[in-house]
Amino acid sequence: MFKLSAFRNELLHWLRKPVIRPAKFQAVVQQELQEELPDLSVSRRRDRLHWGIPVPGDDTQTIYVWVDALFNYLTVSGYPDTKAPWPPNCQVIGKDILKFHAIYWPALLLAVGLEPPAGILCHSHWLLDHHKMSKSRGNIVSPDHAMESYTTDGLRYFLLREGVPHSDSNYNEEKIQKLLNAELADTLGNLLSRCTAPSLNPAQTFPVVSAAEVEADSGEQGKELIAHIGKLPETVSQHFNDFNFYHGLEDIMACLRDTNTFIQNEQPWELKKHSNKQRRLMITLSVAMESLRVCGLLLQPVTPCLASRLLQRLGVPLSERTAAHLQCFKSAGTLQLAGDSRILSQEIVNLFPKIRTL
Asked: Among 75, 4, 59, which Cα is nearest to 33's?
């Protein structure tokens, strides 16, 4: 038997700081630690669990599967090599196995003189049409089929956009189609098509202008949009670091929606008709493309293929797709320039084709 209760105070000390996220799950563990902690049997009768690891010196017993499974984390890290990377910065688990990872596991580690994980991300579940998925009911989702229907990037985007760690999320085909069409095809894809359309941008360039020029000539809405773009990287980074990907993606989409509104109000198709408004046209296109560039960089961890096509179309080389290039209107660097503009890729892309109703 493992004397679990002997580690109650050490476990509470471990949880004196925010270790488990979301906070609601840390509260669950702290409450459980206030109650009686029964001793943990580290083995089971072999006639009931014949496939496990035999207890040394006792063929009638098998190592409890969770003790076996949990210590695999140590094994894969290289333990008992003293150079093994431990503890992990964060372990990702489902809410149904929280007790095993937030009480049993750290207690076992403390018992052998090792540190518990520095952090635990506990996520909730996905429901299918508001019902729990189960093999017996057959209401499951095939990832392969979903990727065929929505593309790999589309599926990744939906899961991170709609999945929230603190409560169960709902997987629904109609919902996926509406979200991807509205945000990836329309909000993002149509904005790129507008800015790079040969009819509006016959030179096929990304005008390079300074922030000062934009401040002077883009109007009040343009100034507000520039400020929005400038703050976006820090805001999104914080959400991503907190594992609240859905908040980060909502902020990116809010910026792109503001950019679409800016384009609609500036009416570059009208500016193009007047020779004395060409500078205003270039600034309008530059602001919109800068928004696309920054948002494209931020989308790389979520939709890598789509973001790559977007940045490629804008003429952004691989060497300038890092966090160091997120500052608004500070990205010209080594890009290939044509006068006051950078050259767009000649490959015209349909960034995310609309999904037809299945």
From this structure: 4
Query: Is pLDDT at 173 greater than 70 in this prediction?
Result: yes
Distance CA 183, CA 179 (A): 6
Going by the DSSP 8-state scheme, the letter that residue 354 receives in this structure is: P
Between CA 11 and CA 30 the distance in angstroms is 9
Identify the residue whose tokens are 């703050």: 231
Q: Are strands 54-55 and 58-63 parallel, antiparallel or unpaired?
A: antiparallel
* CB count in 10 Å sphere of residue 136: 5
Measured CA to CA, the distance from residue 95 to residue 105 in angstroms comes to 15
The pLDDT-based confidence of 208 (bands split at 50, 70, 90) is confident
Do the bridges between strand 169-171 and strand 126-128 make them parallel or antiparallel, or are there none, so unpaired?
parallel
169 vs 51: which has the higher pLDDT = 169
Q: Is the peptide bond before 80 cis (omega within 30 degrees of 0)?
A: yes
Q: CB count, 10 Å around CB of 40?
A: 17
Give which of 190, 291, 159 is closest to 233, Cα–Cα: 291
Show Cβ contacts of residue 178 under 8 Å, excluding neighbours closer than 6 positions.
Answer: none
pLDDT, position 358: 55
What's the pLDDT band for 219 if we cut at 50, 70, 90? confident
Report the alpha-carbon distance of residue 268 to residue 55 in Å, rounded. Answer: 75
The helix or strand, by DSSP H or E, that contains position 162, with its residue range, turns out to be: helix 152-162
Query: Which pTM was predicted?
Result: 0.90
